[in-house]
Amino acid sequence: CLESAINFGAGPAKLPEEVLVEVQKEVVHYGTTKISVMEMSHRSADYAKINDTAQQTVRELLNIPDNYKILFMQGGGTGMFAAVPLNLMSETGVADYIVTGSWSAKAAKEAAKYGKVNMVLPKTDKYVDIPDPSTWNLSPNASYIYYCANETVHGIEFPYIPDTQGIPLVTDMSSNILSRSFDVSKFGVIFAGAQKNIGPAGVTLVIIREDLLGKAAIACPTVLDFTIMAKDNSLHNTPPTFAIYVMGLVFQWIKKEGGVKEMERRAIEKSNLIYEIINSSNNFYYCPVKNDVRSRMNVPFRIGDSNGDEELEKKFLVGAQKLGMLQLKGHRLVGGIRASLYNAVTLDNARVLAKYMKEFYENNK
Ligand code: PMP
Predict the structure, then answer these.
(1) Atom 7, ligand 1: residue with shortest CA distance
(2) pLDDT tens-digit profile of 211-232?
(3) What is the DSSP string of 41-72?
(4) Is 172 an annotated catalytic residue?
(5) In the annotation, is 136 catalytic?
(6) Ligand 1 geometric centre to CA of 178 (Å)
(7) 138 alpha carbon – ligand 1 mean position (Å)
(8) Phi and psi of 220, rounded to 5°?
(9) I need a surface site. Which of 102, 171, 212, 341 has the fewest CB within 10 A?
(10) Of 13, 17, 46, 53, which Cα lies nearest the Cα of 32?
(11) pTM of the predicted structure, to 2 decimals
(12) What is the rounded (10 degree) CA torsion for 333, 337, 341, 344?
């Protein structure tokens, strides 16, 4: 048994150890096939089973209604920033973007290549809150309304699903999917890059309501076309087969552990541990995000004061690494520290970090 480091990376991120061990067992010979999944035709019966089982398991985990298609695509979250307008904007040529952090800002910028983007919120570069919906500037003719459910860099997570009065709602759930239960039927499109809560980088999960298919712009690249991918069961071209296989194992792991509700319970417990230390540190640890929109997945904070004392932050990271805690450095846009607490990060892992933070505070305040 290997002693793994404690991985708080924002993505690619920690995978459940059990899944990695399973992959290790099967990597050379998958089942009775005597070949690896990596060497297997995507047109084979064995691969069809991997593809279909992964779909069925995630349908079950998220309670996805029958009128939604599940797609396994490529291009990552960034690919989806283009795919969404290319597939959905042609209705009116306008889309509303609720920008609450750097990832939704990037999505809005990409969408503006393909049509008119209406910014729902006033422009800011300090993302610390989600303005009240009564202040939102929604357009009367948007083809869809877009938001990022969890901003991985700024640590802002929507605690509710926006009410769009019937306009299709599109969300980027790359960094919080499968960590809280929610009503899929409130959405037109949900997408998530795999490399946080789902599996290895390379596959992007897309969940789309069927009536939104068939609207792609003529110039939409085939690999980004939701309608073609849905028609061909995500097998139009060669999919990232190995990533999809590992993703299927992660779905099964979540099911075995108690499903999304249990992941949600753990996410609350883990993040509360860290936020409690921050809140009781007299601003020695400083998280700029307003309490009710703080992410349960990504906890960004500065050390020393609100601007961060870089020497102290360096010392914190070196000390953490000595104790086996890795990838705690904040995103370069905001600096400081970021603890990502995805599904595969255990409660014990979070406890080790909380204990270290407490001791570091006592020794350096
Ligand atoms: N959306 C969110 C919320 C993300 O966190 C990221 C990546 N960290 C992306 C989109 C971009 O994903 P990718 O790197 O797979 O293009």
Answers:
(1) 77
(2) 999 999 999 999 999 999 999 9
(3) -TTSHHHHHHHHHHHHHHHHHHT--TTEEEEE
(4) yes
(5) no
(6) 16
(7) 25
(8) -65, 125
(9) 102
(10) 46
(11) 0.98
(12) 90
pLDDT tens digits for 70-115? Answer: 999 999 999 999 999 999 999 899 999 999 999 999 999 999 999 9
Spacing of C-alpha 207 from chain mean position: 14
Which residues make Cβ contacts (< 8 Å) with residue 304, sequence separation at least 6? Answer: 284, 312, 313
Any catalytic annotation for residue 305?
Answer: no
**The ligand 1 atom nearest the CA atom of 149:** 3
Q: At which residue do the structure tokens 């989600």 appear? A: 130
Residue of 14, 96, 172, 253 with catalytic role: 172
CB-defined site of ligand 1, < 6 Å? 11, 76-78, 103, 148, 152, 172, 174-175, 193
Rounded Cα distance between 185 and 14, Å, is 30
Torsion of CA 236, 239, 241, 243, to 10 degrees: -140
Q: Terminus-to-terminus CA distance in the chain, angstroms? A: 38
Which tokens go with 128? 């610390």
Neighbours of 231 (CB within 10 A): 13
Query: How many whole angstroms from 76 Cα to the centroid of ligand 1?
Result: 7
Residues in the chain: 365
Q: Side chain identity at 42, as an amino acid letter?
A: H
Strands, DSSP E only, in the chain?
6-7, 68-73, 94-98, 116-119, 145-148, 150-151, 156-157, 169-172, 189-193, 204-209, 285-286, 298-303, 325-326, 337-340
CA contacts within 13 A on the Cβ side of 357: 28
Closest CA to 352 of 321, 315, 317, 325: 325
276 phi-psi bin (left φ>0, alpha ψ -120 to 50, beta other): alpha
Which residues are within 8 A (CB) of 221 and not within 5 positions of it... i.e. 6 or more apart? Answer: 86
Written as six digits, the tokens of 348 are 């014990």
Instruction: Identify the residue whose C-alpha is closest to ligand 1 atom 15.
Output: 76
User: Ligand 1: distance of its center to the CA of 107 in Å?
Assistant: 10
| Mean pLDDT estimate for the chain | 97
ipTM: 0.99
